[in-house]
Amino acid sequence: MKSNHGSDDDTMKEMEREILANIQLCINCRMCLNMCPTYEGWFTQGSFGRLAAINAYFKYGLGEEERLSELLYSCATCRRCQERCKMLCTNASPSETILKARNLLVKKAQAAERKGS
Is-above-0.85 flag for pTM? Predict the structure, then answer.
């Protein structure tokens, strides 16, 4: 029976590249912060901070997966940040990037579980 662990790894690497490429579109204007219903003054409570956390984790290996997951799942995915990005013509798609990063964390957890069994 053929294993698709290799294709799973390739898929996850491609997802990671796409996520990091989307983050690079962000111009760090932070205009999304005031649009975010979860933002209450802490950097990581808005989409800009979440994107920075995703970048730090996937690009540099900084932070803990559990904490990143908490940050990503605290996002309301209302897409207000995304609308602001469209207005500013950056098309960074922060909410889509957050959703893709959530999906990637799930896939990584599933792959780790398969390896452990």
Answer: yes
